[in-house]
Every structure is written in C-alpha cells, then in structure tokens.
Amino acid sequence: MTFVLGLLLSCGSEALGQTRGQDGPRARASAEALLGELDNRERGLDRRETSLVAREEELRTLEAELQTRLEELEGVRNELTKLLEQADSEREIKVQGLVKMVEVMRGGQAAAFLIELEPELAVEVLDRMKTTKAGKALAEMPPAQAAVLAERMTRRPLEQ
Fold it and tell me: pLDDT (tens digit, 9 = 90+) per residue, 78-131?
C-alpha cells in the first residue's frame, strides 16, 4: 500500500509540475484530495485487517476449546461404553447363574420361581434352559402365565 501511495505522490507531483502554469493550485488540491482519500482508505483497510486478524485469533481459540471439549466428550463416551460393557457382562454372569439354579430345581419350584421374576427375565432364563427342563417348568405354571411366557419366547428373536 505504501508503494502505491509513493507512486501516486510522484505521479501527482509530476502532474503538478506540468500543470503549474495552467491550474496549479486546483491540480494540487485535487491531488491532495486524492491522496487524502487514499490515505483514508488505507487506514480503513488497516482497521479491517486488524479486525480480521482478531477474529481469526478468536476463531482459533474457539476451535481449540471445541477440540478440547470434543476430546473430553469422547473420553466420557468411551468410559460409558466400558461401563455398559461391564454391566452387560455382569448381568450375563448373573443370568447364567439363574439358569443353572432354575435348571436344578424341580418343575414346580422352577415354575413358582419363574412366575415371580419379571416376565422379560423369566423369558430369558427359559430361553437359555435346556428344552426339557424349561418345558417341565412351563407345564407346572398356571396355563395363562405359561401362555404369556411362551408367547414372549416366540416373539423374542424378532425384538432383538
């Protein structure tokens, strides 16, 4: 920008020198007005550049903060995934224990126990039991409850 101003000044002074005889004061005023306008534009551009640099810095700061927050959230997500996997694993162990426990019960005892469980858990236990033992437990249940559990057992693969 300074180069442009210098060039204009030299051109303006040459023009002033050539027109001294004709309209020297007018040409000089015109050149000075032009230089003043260019100077104002340069200051405006400098302010704009300063503003843009500040905005870029602010954006970089916000981007860094956002990246940090994303990394934190990713860590929390990974932790939650681990906790869910651990809970699923612990639940699986407990369900397997229930299956073994119910399988060693007599049919009537198993039926009474399964009736007291939440229906979804009872269905899961029945699904994992040996077919003959699950059948004996269902046979010992009241028909309405056995029908509900049997129906849920048939729908279970569709829901998963």
Answer: 999 999 999 999 999 999 999 999 999 999 999 999 999 999 999 999 999 999
Residue 52, token pair as written in the block? 């843009």
- Using left for φ > 0, alpha for ψ between -120 and 50, and beta otherwise, residue 61 falls in alpha
| 97-to-39, 126, 160 alpha-carbon distances in Å | 86, 13, 22
Q: Which two tokens stand for residue 127?
A: 């699904």
Q: At 27, list the tokens.
A: 């040409």
Task: Write down the residue that tokens 């503003």 correspond to.
Answer: 51
Neighbours of 129 (CB within 10 A): 21
What lies within 8 Å, CB to CB, of 127 at 6+ separation is 134, 153, 156
* Integer angstrom CA distances of residue 19 from 4, 13, 90, 141: 22, 10, 97, 118
pTM (predicted TM-score): 0.56
Separation in Å, CA 45 to CA 4, 36, 50, 119, 121 = 14, 14, 8, 74, 72
- Alpha-carbon distance of 11 to 27, in angstroms, equals 12
Tell me the C-alpha distance between 50 and 52, whole Å: 5
